[in-house]
Amino acid sequence: MTDVAVVKEGWLHKRGEYIKTWRPRYFLLKSDGSFIGYKERPEAADQSSPPLNNFSVAECQLMKTERPRPNTFVIRCLQWTTVIERTFHVDSPEEREEWMRAIQTVANSLKNQEPEADPMDYKCGSPNDGTGAEEMEVAVSKTRPKATMNDFDYLKLLGKGTFGKVILVREKATGRYYAMKILRKEVIIAKDEVAHTVTESRVLQNTRHPFLTALKYAFQTNDRLCFVMEYANGGELFFHLSRERVFTEERARFYGAEIVSALEYLHSRDVVYRDIKV
């Protein structure tokens, strides 16, 4: 088994996710993709005190910007089933380039290490009898058309997180493309995310709006939950913003109207969702 090494470490200013203040954090970037932040510099790499920040740069996207501060960069990655963004800034363009190069190198290394496996092996595994498994049964709709793993061709990996993967699939019967979230039950239970999973599933099953991603099918295997979602092949807003840098006022107004319309619809159904993905 390969030892996990510290690839790069140092002080970064990290912007808060909810209270938008900047705070210094000492970060360790490790070869397994871990990106861990501490309030103080740890005495050793095996620091026993819990970190303040802990996420993975596997399958991440990077963007540099000069706002809201000079020498800022953004890391975007998949955590749970949510795409998260974390914003940092450093003192110089050179330091920013060093961090971004190191992060991208680790992400590329992890991608190259992944074995080429038949996507159908996601349905393999032993039954899970752990606490919470019965509650997750309600996450699979009883009223939607039935589907199984065998109803799809598995084309490519779209994203990977702690709880599972998102795969681009093609429905054999119709030829339509979808994004399939395949989540591991045992990890959901171990991370105490059963309630989160059930809530997200219920919201998806009970919403219909042109600017919200639709849930087409939901089913399960012995050890996986599978959600077959509408595939938005235009790409994420983050991708277009990183390419264009600045949107025209007309384009920003168009995107803003779509987002507000979707949020108003959710609020009208008494749904408040914290982690918006656009």
UniProtKB/TrEMBL annotation:
Domain Protein kinase: 152-278
UniProt domain PH: residue ranges: 5-108
InterPro entries, sorted: Kinase-like_dom_sf, PH-like_dom_sf, PH_domain, PH_PKB, Prot_kinase_dom, Protein_kinase_ATP_BS
PROSITE patterns named among the record's database cross-references: PH_DOMAIN (PS50003), PROTEIN_KINASE_ATP (PS00107), PROTEIN_KINASE_DOM (PS50011)
Alphabetical keyword list: ATP-binding, Kinase, Nucleotide-binding, Serine/threonine-protein kinase, Transferase
Entries under Gene3D superfamilies matching the protein: Phosphorylase Kinase, domain 1, Pleckstrin-homology domain (PH domain)/Phosphotyrosine-binding domain (PTB), Transferase(Phosphotransferase) domain 1
GO MF entries: ATP binding; protein serine/threonine kinase activity
Residues at which ATP binds: 191
SMART domains to which the protein is assigned, alphabetical: PH, S_TKc
Similarity annotation: Belongs to the protein kinase superfamily. AGC Ser/Thr protein kinase family. RAC subfamily.
PANTHER family registered for this protein in UniProt: RIBOSOMAL PROTEIN S6 KINASE
Name under which the protein is recorded: AKT2 kinase
Gene it is expressed from: Akt2
